[in-house]
Design goal:
TIM Barrel; alpha/beta; binds flavin mononucleotide; eight-stranded parallel β-sheet
Length: about 375
């Protein structure tokens, strides 16, 4: 039998790399590991698609070589199906199995998955019970605070999961309706940590080491988790052990090139592989351009504010901060082709950047 203690021993004190559809691709997890991540979670995996033997879904449950702690996140709402899927991913070396109770996307909530399942604590308890009976590794849930601000059910939901035997609770401190519009509510996360007898992992807006250390000190959480922070600055994991990194543009490019290497060796350097790498790389570049360092006055940017880099220290840093398509495509192509990034395209005439809203509030975010 697994216990809360064993989940605690897997994750205690860690900054965990959150489950992210597309973002938690295997080469990106390898990059985060090289930069110090020691607990990582798969993308959301739909239990039914595993049952249907979909190859793409099986790719998501693959553990990366040398991955120190690897959790697999499942989405499903049928106890038997979830128990079957849990046994399968346990046999593929998952260290713990998480249940997605937060995915906000209509396509999934209409099927009763993700945040829609989070509205049914009784059903969640039965699912956890069934999974616990099927596996030895810890079973956890990842919840939001509720469907919307006037329908908060986080304490009831967390307790139902624990009643069913859950070994830990991940909490993204926002409602489904809020998406990313408000800062995460860490007081509510602390309330859950005080209310349940299992480890709680808090999640929301962690971007710099002080965010991590403050939350570890004040929330009662066993560990803290980051999603967009890892996408924007995968070196955040190194910062947890070594402190804030005043990283140069050149050092950033070295990290980005390393991702290309890892991605090419994972997907292959033939036409098909390069096409996949380009697709993922272009997507990642859309997050990498959001990085801004500590401000000149010593204050810290937060996830909630969209900062403009006022005084780039070099032309390369200015290029990496551009969010226009020609620049993002250029950076992608140069990284993929091993080019030197020294001849960026002209800055297009100013026009509203409609994609910016998309990145602030990614529709695909669980
Ligand atoms: C691109 C992207 C994909 C995500 N996919 C998932 C997912 O598959 N499963 C899940 O539980 N959460 C998913 N999330 C939500 C994150 O795990 C996390 O709960 C949320 O982004 C809040 O953390 P942050 O403020 O550090 O970004 C995703 C988030 C992003 C940005």
């Amino acid at each position: 039998m697994s216990t809360g203690t064993s989940f605690s021993s897997l994750v205690s004190g860690a900054l965990i790399a959150a489950p992210m559809t597309k973002g938690s691709n295997l080469p990106f997890r390898l990059l985060c590991m090289e930069l110090g991540a020691r607990v990582l979670i798969s993308e959301m995996v739909v239990a039914r698609r595993l049952k249907q033997r979909k190859r793409g879904e099986f790719a998501l449950i693959r553990r990366a070589p040398g991955e120190p702690v690897f959790g697999v996140q499942l989405a499903g709402n049928k106890p038997e199906e979830m128990a079957w899927a849990a046994a399968l991913v346990e046999s593929r070396q998952a260290d713990f199995i998480d249940i997605n109770l937060g995915c906000p996307i209509d396509h999934f909530t209409r099927m009763g998955l993700g945040a829609a399942l989070g509205r049914q604590p009784g059903r969640v308890r039965r699912i956890v019970e069934a999974m616990k009976a099927a596996v030895k590794v810890p079973v956890t849930v990842k919840i939001r605070l509720g469907w919307k601000a006037d329908q908060l059910n986080y304490l009831e939901l967390a307790k139902a999961a624990v009643d069913g035997g859950a070994d830990g609770v991940f909490v993204h401190g926002r409602t489904r309706e809020a998406r990313y519009r408000h800062p995460a509510d860490w007081a509510a996360i602390a309330e859950i940590a005080a209310a349940v007898p299992v480890p709680v992992v808090g999640n929301g807006d962690v971007l710099f080491p002080h965010d991590f250390h403050d939350h570890m000190a004040h929330s009662g959480c066993t560990a803290v988790m980051t999603a967009r922070g890892a996408l924007i600055k995968p070196w955040i994991f190194r910062e947890i052990s070594e402190g804030y990194w005043e990283i140069t543009a050149e050092e950033r490019v070295t990290i980005y090139r390393r991702y290309v290497e890892l991605a090419l060796s994972h997907w292959g350097g033939d036409d098909y592989g390069r096409e996949r790498v380009r697709d993922f790389l272009r997507w990642h570049v859309g997050f990498w351009c959001r990085y801004v360092p500590r401000r000149a006055d010593g204050s810290w940017p937060t996830m909630q504010q969209r900062e403009v880099l006022e005084h780039p220290r070099s032309p390369l840093e200015a290029l990496l901060a551009r969010t226009d398509d020609p620049a993002l495509d250029y950076v992608t192509d140069q990284l993929l082709g091993g080019g030197d990034l020294s001849a960026p395209p002209p800055v297009p005439e100013a026009r509203p950047d409609t994609r910016r809203d998309m990145r602030d509030d990614p529709v695909e975010a669980g």
